[in-house]
Specification:
11 helices; 5-stranded parallel sheet; 431 residues; alpha/beta; globular
Length: 431
């Protein structure tokens, strides 16, 4: 164990959209250290294909977006949180554009696509690789900021907490984290007055998942061990259309393929089947509806997969809208302009997590959280398509605003790490 801790004003765990948004908003006043489990761009943000939801189309309203979100979440959302996120969406898009994210345009306005569960076209995107473009822009800004220190290959093991007696009362401070340095094979202590968990979801606890390999729920687990409430972990979202391939088990076929005319077909019967499950919304029903429909077809007929077919659309249209997916599939022997894509449902998003308020505060002083590791009340039982990156931007900024506004109330960490310890292993509890 290293004796001398690395100390900064604020410590951010995770280098995706939520973590870097918080860091960039804090760096004007504070020294910020960002730890990444692997490479700085290996988190879920870079994998996001579809886009970011925001009310920008004439005729669309905040209330429409709010209601779509709550319907998708089975009414288990926190309405005030949904309102906050939706109403801040257009401003978030504007800030990203100023940061250099090259959103697709249609003439003089942003090109908007539509995804399942949305009543209007409101998905801002960069081709079919929006997350990668956003990640690159955020990382470029963070690298250029002298107040941000980016540290890759640091596997955070546990939170460093106060020595408090009532362990689960939520009364103890968090002073930072213990992290395993992959380069030195040593555990090092990082301390700060405020710690922000932006560690992503727990998708890789499932065999088939669209999440990157690092998404194993570490932040959620360490927050629970330290005494935070965890909620809604039973609400795992399954994406309806993950590529069926025995070697490539996590390649997502974006929802936008269905938004632009893709049809789901039973390969055994040749029948377009969504009319049997949701005749009004068809392929544009929310993800849980479409995923269950795909699963039902597969199990009923003993199939390995169903078909997602957009080959009836003009070839140049498909290549122009989905260039990265087209190239990836072509390399696997599938020409999506001429043949259907074999797809299966796969774990896609962790709707539950660390309980936070609308400032990103957890139950423990000094500990904040944002993004997929949280249960903010936005998603309810099921996330509406393209609300995930949006949540990262809005809550990343909310966390930064609250820390800045309440900085004088945040105590500095104990000198040289005295008075801190790793949260102990999971205890036995009586339920």
């Amino acid at each position: 164990m290293a004796n001398d801790p690395h100390t900064s004003d604020i410590l951010v765990i995770g280098s995706g959209a939520a973590g870097l948004t918080a860091a960039l908003n804090l760096a004007a006043r504070f020294k910020v250290t960002v730890l990444a489990k692997g490479g700085l761009n290996e988190g879920s943000t870079a994998w996001a294909q579809g886009g970011i939801a925001a009310v920008l189309e004439p005729g669309d309203t905040f209330e429409n977006h709010i209601e779509d979100t709550i319907v998708a979440g089975a009414g288990l959302n926190d309405r005030a949180t949904v309102e906050m996120v939706v109403e801040n969406a257009p401003a978030a898009i504007e800030r990203l554009a100023r940061l250099g994210v090259p959103f697709n345009t249609d003439g003089n306005s942003l090109h908007l696509t539509r995804e399942g569960g949305h009543s209007h076209r409101r998905i801002v995107h960069v081709d079919d690789a929006t997350g990668w473009a956003v990640q690159e822009a955020l990382l470029k800004a963070a690298r250029a900021n002298p107040n941000i220190t980016l540290v890759p290959d640091m596997v955070v093991i546990d939170l460093a907490t106060s020595r408090h007696e009532e362990r689960y009362s939520g009364a103890g401070n968090v002073w930072g984290v213990y992290a395993f340095n992959r380069a030195t094979n040593r555990v090092e202590l990082f301390t700060a007055s405020a710690t922000v968990l932006a560690t992503g979801g727990a998708g890789r606890t499932y065999l088939f998942s669209t999440a990157p390999r690092g998404a194993t729920g570490d932040g959620i687990a360490m927050a629970w061990r330290a005494g935070c409430r965890i909620s809604n972990m039973e609400f795992m979202q399954f994406h309806p259309t993950c590529l069926y391939n025995l070697e490539v088990k996590n390649f997502l076929i974006t929802e936008a393929v269905r938004g632009e005319g893709g049809q789901l077909i039973n390969p055994q019967t040749g029948k377009r089947f969504m009319a049997d499950y949701d005749p009004e919304r068809m392929e544009l029903a929310p993800r849980d509806v479409v995923a269950r429909a795909n699963d039902a077809e597969i199990k009923r007929d003993g199939l390995d997969f169903v078909h997602l077919d957009i080959s009836h659309m003009p070839s140049e249209f498909v290549k122009g809208h989905f260039p990265n997916i087209y190239e990836k599939l072509l390399g696997l022997g599938i020409d999506m302009t001429a043949q259907p894509i074999p797809v299966v449902p796969a774990q896609h998003y962790t709707c539950g997590g660390i309980v936070i308020d609308r400032h990103g505060k957890t139950d423990l002083p000094g500990l904040y959280a944002a993004g997929e590791c949280t249960q903010s009340g936005l998603h309810g039982a099921n996330r509406l398509a393209s609300n995930s990156l949006l949540e990262c931007f809005v809550f990343g900024e909310a966390v930064a605003s609250h820390i800045a506004a309440n900085w004088d109330d945040l105590a500095p960490p104990p000198r040289s790490g005295h008075g801190t310890r790793a949260a102990s292993p999971i205890p036995t509890r009586k339920w």
